[in-house]
Structure formats: C-alpha cells, structure tokens
Amino acid sequence: MTGLLSSSNFQWVLTSAVLLGMAAGMVGTMANLRKQGLMSDAISHAALPGVILAFLISGEKQLPVLITGAAISGLIAAFFIQSIKRTTRIKEDAAMGIILSVFFGGGIMLLSIANRVGGGSQSGLDRFIFGQAASMVRMDAYIMGALAVVVMLLIFVSFKEWKVVLFDPRHAKMMGIPVRLYSSLYTLLLVLVIVIGIQAVGVILMAAMLIIPAISSRYWTHSLFTVFVLSAVFGGVSGGIGTLISSSGSNLPTGPFIVVTSSLIFLLSLFFGTKKGLLFRGEKLHANRRYLKQGGDHK
Amino acid sequence: MSYAGWILLTGALVGISCGLTGVLLILRKMAMMADAISHTVLLGIVAAYLVSSSLDGGSMLIGAMLAGLLTAWLVQWFESSGINTDAAIGVVFTTLFSIGVILISTSVGNVHLDVNHALMGEISFIPWNVIELPLIGPVPSATLLLLIVTIIVALVILLFFKEWKITTFDPALAASLGFPVLLMHYVFMTLVSVTTVAAFDAVGAIMVVAMLITPAASANLWTDRLSHMFLLSALFGVASSSMGYVVAIWLNTSISGSMAFSTGLIFLISYFFAPKHGQIAKRVYKTNEI
Amino acid sequence: MKKLLLAVMLFVFGGIISGCADANETDSKKPLQVVATTSQIGDSVQQIGGENIEVTSLMGPGVDPHTYQATQNDIQTLQNADIVFYNGLHLEGKMDEIFEQISATKPVLALGEAIPEEKLLKDPDNPGVVDPHIWFDINLWKESLDKAANELVKLMPEDEEEILSQKETYFTELDTLLEESNDQMESIDQQQRVLVTAHDAFGYFGRLFDTEVIGLQGLSTEDELGIRDIQDTIDLLVERNIPSVFIESSISDRSIQAVIQGSEESGQKVELGGELYSDAMGKEGTVEGTYIGMYKHNVKTIVDALKKEAE
Lengths: 299, 290, 311
What we know:
The structure holds three protein chains of three kinds.
Chain A: H1 2-6, H2 8-33, H3 37-58, H4 63-87, H5 92-117, H6 127-130, H7 138-157, H8 159-167, H9 169-174, H10 179-217, H11 224-246, H12 254-272, H13 285-296
Helix pairs in contact in A: 2-7, 2-10, 2-11, 3-4, 3-5, 3-10, 4-5, 4-10, 7-10, 10-11, 10-12, 11-12
Chain B: H1 3-27, H2 31-52, H3 57-80, H4 85-108, H5 115-120, E1 130-133, E2 137-140, H6 141-159, H7 161-169, H8 171-176, H9 181-203, H10 205-222, H11 226-251, H12 255-273, H13 279-289
Antiparallel strand pairs in B: 1-2
Helix pairs in contact in B: 1-6, 1-9, 1-10, 1-11, 2-3, 2-4, 2-9, 2-10, 3-4, 3-9, 6-9, 9-10, 10-11, 10-12, 11-12
Chain C: H1 2-26, E1 32-36, H2 39-49, E2 53-57, H3 72-80, E3 83-86, H4 95-102, E4 108-110, E5 122-123, E6 126-130, H5 138-155, H6 160-186, E7 194-199, H7 203-208, E8 212-217, H8 227-240, E9 244-248, H9 254-265, E10 271-276, H10 291-310
Parallel strand pairs in C: 1-2, 1-3, 3-4, 7-8, 9-10
Antiparallel strand pairs in C: 5-6
Helix pairs in contact in C: 2-5, 2-6, 5-6, 6-10, 8-9
C-alpha cells in the first residue's frame, strides 16, 4: 500500500479528484442556493450529444475538441431549460427531465452511429458516460488544478456581488450589479466544471459531486463564505478518501467511492451539524426554518 | 406477429404505461423523481441478484420496486428535515446508484449484469425472448410484463380517478377531507417504480425518463382537463415510440435512443402549435386581446 | 411457437422473393446467406464456404464486441440469414441470449462452445468465467471452424466436396501461419516475452507461444479499471524491465497511455509497441482485414517491439 501511495499514477488521480471535488463543491454551493441542484444532472446528460457530434464532425479524439462539444451542448441545454420554464406552464423540474432525456437519447443515437462508422469505441467516447478516473495522468491533474483556481478566483474576487446575486437577484439589480452577467458566468462555471468532471466520474455521478458537499456544509454555518469554504473542503476530502478506498483493491471504480464518501459526510452533517443538524435542533427549529426560507428563496 | 409488430407493440405499451404515470408525475411536480427512480432501480436489480442469484423477471421486479420505494421514502424524509427537493433527490439517487455500481464491481463480478445494458436497454432483442402462453402462443416476455403493468396502471388510475385528482391538485384540501394523502403518495411511487422496471428492461433507464416526462409535459400544453391529459399523454407516448422506431430504421441506429429523441420532437411541435398553451396560440391570444 | 415461426418464415420469404428477382435473371444459384458477429469469424468462414456462401459480419473494424449494440440493419440481416455463427462464451455480451433464442428458428453455432471445455482458458480470479478470445489459438480456431464447415455442409449437401476441399486448403494456410508465427515468436528472448495490453484478449495467444500476457482490464472491456490495476501493471513493467506495451484497435488508448506515463515517472522507459488487432480486425479489403493478415500483423508488431529492446 505504501508503494502505491508514493506512485505517480495514484498521486495524479488523487490530486485530480481532490481538486475536482473542491471546484465542484464551490460551484455546487451556488447551484444549491439557486435551487438548481439537479440542473447539473441535466447538463451532464445533455453534454453527451455534443461530445459525439464533435467527434463525428472533426474526426478527432483530442480532449479539447470533445470538451468544447460537450460545453456547447451543455450550454444549449441550459438555455432550453430556462426558456421552457419561462415561456410555458411547465415547471423547471419537468423541463430538466425533458431536456436531459431527449438530449441523452440523441446522444445514444449518435454514439451508435459513431461506433458503427468506426473509431467510436477506440476513441473512448463511452468514458464520457461512465467516466474513468484511474487512467488520469499529469495533464488531467493540471487541468483540474486550473479549473479549481479559476472557480476560486471568480467566486472570491467578487464575493460580495455573488452573495447578493445568489440570495436576492432583484435587490442586486437595484444595487446596479449586472445580474445577467453574473447569471451567465454562473451557468458557464457550472457547465465548465461538469464537462471537465464527467470524464473522471461519469455523467451520473457528476451531479453528486456538485450537490452533496454543498448541502452538507449548510449544516455547520450560517455564513455564506464559510459555506463555500466548507463545501470545497468536503468536496476535496471526499475526492481524496474515495480515491484512497478505490485504490485498495483491483477493479474498483473511483467515482462511486467518492460519492459514497461524500454521502457519509452528508449524513454526519445532517445528524451532528452544529447549526441545523438534527441533534442540535430543539427549540431553534422554527428560527432555522425561517432562515432556510429566506436563504433558499431567491425570487 | 412479425418482428416489427412486436417492437411497435412493446414501444406502444411503454408509451401508454409511462404516459399515464407521467401525467401525475408532472402535475405533482415530481418529474425528477422519475429520473431518480430510473437510476436507483439499478441497485434494486443488483440486490435482487445478490439475494436470489438469478436474473429472472420476478425477483428483479420486486428488487426494483423496493429500491423505488426506498428512494421515495428517503427523499421524503430528507425533505421533511428541511432540504430542498432537488437536492434531496440528487443526494439519494446518486448515492444509491453508486452503491449499485460498487456492488456490481465487487460482488457480482463478471456476471453479465452490466451498467451499460441497464442504462441503454436493448429493445431490438425483445421479440426473440419469448415465453409460451396457453391459448395465445409465444409472446415476448418483456412485452407480456409491460402489458400486465400497463393494465395495472390504467386500473389504479381509473378506479381512484377522483382521489388522484384531488390529492394532486389540492393536497391540503384532500387531507382535510380525510383522503389518505401520504398513502396515495406511496401508492403512486410504487406505480412509478413498477412502470420504470417494466419499461427499463425493454428500453433502458434514459428512455424511461423521456417517456415518463416528455409526453406528459407535451399533453400539459394541449389541455387543462385531467382526463384529456391522460389520453393525450398516452397517445403521444405511442406516437413517439412508433416514430422512434421509424427513425431508428432510417438512420440505422439505436432504437431506444431514437424513441427518447422522438418524444422531444413531439414536445417541440406541442411547444409551438399546441392550441391552448403553445407559443403561437399564446401570441394569437395576446394580439386578440389588444 | 408456430406463429412466430410463421412470422419469421413470412419475413424471410419476403426477403427471398425480393432477392430472388435478381437471382432468377442471372439464372445462378443463390449463395447461402451466412451471418457472423465478428469479422474474424466472417473472414474464416468465407474462406471455407467460398463462392457458395455470402457472409455478412455485423462488427466491422474498430468495433468492440463486448459493448456492441445491435442496430436495425443487424436485425434485418439476422432475420434474412440462413445460418448464424457467433463466438459465444459471452464475447458478444448480452447478445448471447438472443442467439440462443434464434437457434429455435434457424441453425446457429457458437464457435466457442464447439470446443471441449477443458481446452478453454478460465479466468484465474473467477473460475466460472471462460476466456472468449479463442481465435488467437490457431489450433482451437481450426477445431471450431471444422464444426462450422460441418454446419455449412448440412445446409448444402450438394457442395460437400467443394467446401471440404476449401477447408483443407485454408487449414494448410493456417498451419503455415502457426509455424511462421511460432518461429518468429521464438526469436524473442524468453525473458522478454511479455505482452501488456489494454484488456485480457491475448490469453490464448500467450498459451500458444509461451508468452506471458497482462491485460489492464479483465476479459471484458466492460470490467472496471481501478487505480490498483494500473499501478500493478507499472510495478511489473519496472520489476521485469519490460520495454513495450501495446494498444488495441477497438479500445481507447487512454489506460495504456497512463501506464506509459506512470512508468516513465518510475524511471522505466516504456514505449508504445504499436497497435494490435484484438477483438476487431482491419478494414475490409486490406491485408489486416483478413484473419491471417491480422494475425501476421500482430505477430510482426509484437516481435518488432519486443526484440528491439533486447538489443
């Protein structure tokens, strides 16, 4: 085991998982505040047709090309979800379900064509569905590192603005903050984290990386800043522990272990969290409910 | 019946059973629960396999039903402890799915119970997997299962139509009138799980989500009446599955993928042309008003 | 059962009638429609059946049979087939069960299941699972092709002589292939004869030529690839001072690239030995698109890569 810990492949995977966990934790906090946790699930599924179209059109399996495709189709999906919600009586969750399944269905159609035309399986397109953390190398660690830094900078440099925008967009508008710019930036960050993350943990578990650390952290503090920091910590720790467990034996998938670790942290927070944990609730329950309503409701 | 006939029939049954359940899902604002259950079903199937060490329909159905109920119960419980619905759903289904994947890679080993199959399904093979029925002759087993489930869904919805209506549109009133709101919730979740499993075997998880949500959402744009919505949604489900089959033959590609994609085409048409809540109707209505 | 049979027959009939139109014009005998899953089977059976049969292989170049998804055309092809050959032993994943069902309506042969069980390799970690990549053992392959030829003869008794003589010719070629390959493989130092690939496809190849084989993933590309698997392989490369690893034409090269980079960090220079045809063959019409050409390509690539370093 000690030999494994000092090996470079393990360290690349560990570093990538920790950094991805941190980036996802922070962006997930924003998504959670906007009650858009499942948006990440929708976008990660919707990225599939973009990946495969990019492959079919360019004929290349270069990662930047595929990721660009994924990002474009993810952004289109996010836009569609918003417009369905805005222009029809259909609720956001149904809109997400529609876009998610229809885009993914289209992706499967294209994948079947790509596999037949040839080179589909060789280019490893299906790792965009299930992810494969074990084969990450130094470059992946660098990419995850850059991602984490970009996310951190964007959030903390204009933290005050984000705070108002996330909690009360109307008030933010009155204060003269370019809310639309921040909203687009938020969507962009979300899509970026997702498309970079899915090749590590896969389409389905990407949502977990974004959602779980973010809700766990809210059981420990009322300050938004600390929520962000804690989410990053929880995300990073889950990434690290998940990688450690999955390298203890052969044929163990990394992504699912990260998610299960993350869920355990969540359960601990739910019961023992000092702010809203079930054990510390007592008479504060009502005050907390009120806080939740204020905090969660952005309309 | 010919090969294409069986495929179309199977697709139509998926369309009807999902279309009917989907209407209630949409109106109860639980669309993403469909997504969640369709993924956690994997855990149910793996667990059923580990307990019974067989892959037959019966144990799979029970396992998946229990997994579906577990999902519904956990989400409900997290919600009541103050977590946003979407976050609660996100936590529950990704965790249960992960446990399923871990179990497959550690305990199930090389048995051909792969995640790939579970997610994509393989409707093309259904007509060959037949069982012999007295009087009728050979029937594809997946189609038979779907037929039974479709009948159950239709019966449960028809028999308790009034109850569904009131618990869906006004749960508070329903509770004050003495309707068993919570019981109805779990009955409904069981319905969703059963429909999901039956359709799942045929067309895979993603396709189930498409079939559950999209035709119902499209129907929601055409009418305000619950009974019409049920009919339209089932109709849209059937139409998109047949359309999907045609597209799949035309492009020579995955049938379940095309069927999911076709639900999107029907939604697109409804989005613009639905007489009640479509974009064009809305424009016309607005100009008339001026 | 009768109804389905009737349905299938009607379907096949439709195909025959439409197909017969041209056949009657040229007034020649319509070749037997043979469907094979992998192109290894397709090519070999074609060599034996010659002009009496028309072979369609469902899985083309670069296609991974473990994760293959059938398309609508495949279904049509299967329905119009007079006989179906597949590999079996779970190579085609979930398609296996379907072939069992089809066997009720038309002759279907699983080449892998035609071989006596004691000659097959078992997964050491999981004794219940059999290695399906039988075509890499030329002797086993001949044995199963023999069974395939018998099936063809059953359907075309009037062409028995022709088929059997074509089979003999082909088998002679295979014998030469085996000898040549053996000579070439033996030219590699015993110590150097280690084949590292992305998944465990070369078990029979290794047994045949006394070569150690290591696959990152298990017998199926569906198997999970863990960090431990990559690290174990790297450790072995370093320990045994193995200079080359190989990618496969039907699998992403990502895991092998991770091994190469990881070994480099550990101070062991590992090179990419080249691309092998494991579960799929080359493009139709090229040399690598035939079974023999594919085999020669693999042997040459392996010998070139493993011998180079020995110097």
